[in-house]
Amino acid sequence: ESVARVIDFAEGMDGQKLDRALGVYAEDTSGFTAGEPVRGYFGRGVKDAILGLGSGTVTGIVQGRQHQAWLGIRNERAYYEAQEATPVPPGC
């Protein structure tokens, strides 16, 4: 079993943005079709990467709150699960 971690210093994703970015497949969640300058392509980037590895958790920190969502395979189907926002743990 392997672990890959990616850290960025962007604006973060709250629960609503995580739901849109991870909970919907094959829909433009990045803004690509609206002509926005993005790297994503029809909302497939992070979802394909996570499912290609088996499963993964995305954590967003916005205004002192930590938002987390898990994406993986359960019963041979893609499965998405979001957690309630919590205060950012000390040291983050």
Task: Report on this structure.
This protein is an alpha+beta fold and 92 residues long. It has two helices and four strands, in the order H-H-E-E-E-E. Strands 1, 2, 3 and 4 form a four-stranded antiparallel β-sheet that branches. The protein is globular. The two termini are 25 Å apart.
List the helices and strands and how they pair.
Elements: H1 15-22, H2 45-53, E1 55-62, E2 65-74, E3 77-82, E4 86-87
Antiparallel strand pairs: 1-2, 2-3, 2-4
Terminal residue distance = 25 Å
Give the topology string: H per helix, E per strand. Answer: HHEEEE
Q: List low-confidence stretches.
A: none
Q: Roughly how much helix do the residues carry, as a percent range?
A: 10-25%
Query: Structural class of the helix and strand makeup?
Result: alpha+beta
Tally of separate helices: 2
Mean pLDDT reading:
82
Q: What labels would you give this structure?
A:
92 residues; alpha+beta; 2 helices; 4 strands; 18% helix
